[in-house]
Design a protein that fits this description.
By secondary structure, the protein is an alpha+beta fold. Helix content is 52%, strand content 11%. It has two domains: 122 residues, Uridine Diphospho-n-acetylenolpyruvylglucosamine Reductase, domain 2, CATH 3.30.43; 306 residues, Cytochrome P450 (Cytochrome p450, Orthogonal Bundle). The protein has a five-stranded mixed beta sheet with strand order 1-2-10-7-3. A three-stranded antiparallel beta sheet has the order 4-14-11. Bound molecules: protoporphyrin IX containing FE. The site of protoporphyrin IX containing FE has 25 residues, from helix 14 and helix 18.
Length: 429
């Protein structure tokens, strides 16, 4: 291919860029490689946020690092929120730092270490139930979804009786337009309830907005109720801790701050680990050699940590959007005030100038400065919980079932955006 051809292909790929489209996932790394080589800061029209004068997508690792650390030029308040921006993810420093100072102590390595026996016991129960049901099973429905969700509900103080409702709201809000089968069904039901005539397999932008805003308000009402109950009956969960917290040692958090924080944790704590686990086990199902390599090292405390880190690099799931706060020149490209810039961590994590053989799983990769958990002030607060959940889930599952393969009769279901799987049918043996 000539340079000119490659450049035109990259321009076409940038113009059509839509990471929310499931079809894109089939060639995402090819597209990211092309963009990184030809147009590392690519202008795209496809994902322009409401009112933004254009969007950009970054694919180079070094530029992604600079971008994520420059919170003065690139604001986290970059989305359309159902009610108010979420705390702390959509808040910029310095207020962001004040919120993180409250929450960081609840998610330290030591705090999360205490949870290990509980994580292990619960993972064992779930895997036993899943494997007792026969020779085939859906790994996502029976394990990847409930494992982190139940743990998160217990930590946060969300009643487990509400599990199905919590999952349905989350799927409606997060997955109404990214190819998630159940997410779309739930959203379509809600749109009809709101008087829209949904036809076909997509919501119109108006329908999507109506659904997202309605489900957002229902979640807010639910969270408000939980906060009121906990105010009357404190325990040791996150809602109780938030009620006792003080902003900069000056005042308690307001009802709105409490709700906006719980809303974000609800979204961040539920989907992420489930998505990572689904994608990792899908790779292991298709690649028995890699699976065996992992099983051999997974009980070695020295080797399993780097291996989990590598799996998270390889299966980065998060797209990080930011809004440009002022006209700015970034690595030679001018971004207009108000534009949206998108940093797909999956693209940075496959950049060969930072990671040798980026498309290979190298379980002892060092260094491994991947961006799967983000970088800069907003780096994932749940990192120690997430790493433990992924490690324990993989250890427990593979101890009980080292051999499995994709179900030849039923296809896995993928969704885009903050990508993952909504179904992963597997067969024992
Ligand atoms: C494999 C699992 C996970 C991945 C890949 C992941 C990834 C990320 C990423 C990339 C960010 C940065 C967002 C940004 O820069 O705007 C982030 C932030 C965040 N994550 Fe995670 N996460 C995971 C698990 C969790 C869990 C289990 C929790 C719940 C405790 C959690 C809670 C949060 C919160 C609250 C933030 C916002 C932090 C801030 O804005 O300061 N995450 N996560």
């Amino acid at each position: 291919m000539t340079t000119m051809d490659a450049r035109s292909l990259a321009e076409a790929a940038a113009a059509a860029y839509n990471p929310y489209d499931v079809a894109f996932l089939e060639r995402e790394f090819e597209v990211y490689d092309l963009l990184r080589a030809e147009l590392p800061i690519a202008r795209t029209e496809a994902i322009t946020a409401m009112g933004a004068p254009g969007s950009w997508v970054l694919t180079r690792y070094d530029q992604s690092c600079d971008f994520l650390q420059d919170h003065a030029s690139f604001s986290n308040q970059s989305n359309v929120y159902p009610v108010r921006p979420w705390i702390p993810q959509a808040i910029d420093p310095p207020a962001h730092s004040a919120y993180r100072r409250i929450m960081n102590p609840w998610f330290t390595v030591d705090e999360m270490r205490h949870l290990e026996p509980h994580l292990e016991k619960f993972a064992e129960e779930l895997v036993d139930t899943m494997l007792d049901q026969g020779d085939d099973f859906d790994f996502v429905a029976a394990f990847a979804d409930p494992f982190p969700t139940v743990i998160f509900c217990q930590l946060a103080g969300f009643p487990l009786d509400d599990y199905q409702q919590i999952m349905n709201w989350k799927n409606t809000l997060m997955h109404c337009a990214d190819g998630h089968v159940r997410g779309f069904e739930l959203a379509a039901e809600m749109a009809r309830e709101l008087g829209h005539e949904v036809s076909g397999s997509h919501l119109t932008p108006e329908e999507e907005l109506a659904v997202r805003s309605t489900v957002g308000q229902r979640i807010y009402a639910y969270l408000g109720g939980l906060i009121d109950r906990r105010r009357a009956e404190p325990t040791d969960d996150m809602i109780t801790k938030l009620l006792a917290a003080s902003y900069e040692g000056e005042r308690p958090l307001t009802q709105e701050e409490l709700e906006d924080t719980l809303f974000l944790f609800y979204m961040a704590g539920l989907d992420t680990v489930a998505s990572a686990l689904g994608l990792i086990v899908q790779t292991f199902a298709a690649n028995p050699g890699k699976r065996r390599e992992f099983i051999e090292l997974m009980d070695d405390p020295e080797r399993v940590g780097p291996a989990v880190e590598e799996l998270i690099r390889y299966h980065a799931i998060v797209l990080l959007p930011r809004r440009v706060t002022q006209d700015v020149t970034f690595h030679g490209t001018e971004f207009a005030h108000g534009s949206q810039v998108l940093c797909p961590t999956m693209a940075a994590n496959r950049d060969a100038s930072e990671f040798a053989e980026p498309n290979e799983l190298v379980f002892d990769r060092t260094p491994n400065r991947h961006l799967g958990f983000g970088l800069g002030p907003h780096r994932c607060i749940g990192i120690h919980l997430a790493r433990r959940e992924v490690r324990i889930a993989l250890q427990v599952f593979h101890r009980k079932l080292p051999d499995y393969h994709p179900d030849p009769e039923r296809r896995a279901e993928a969704f885009g955006g903050m990508k993952g799987l909504s179904a992963l049918p597997l067969v024992k043996g």
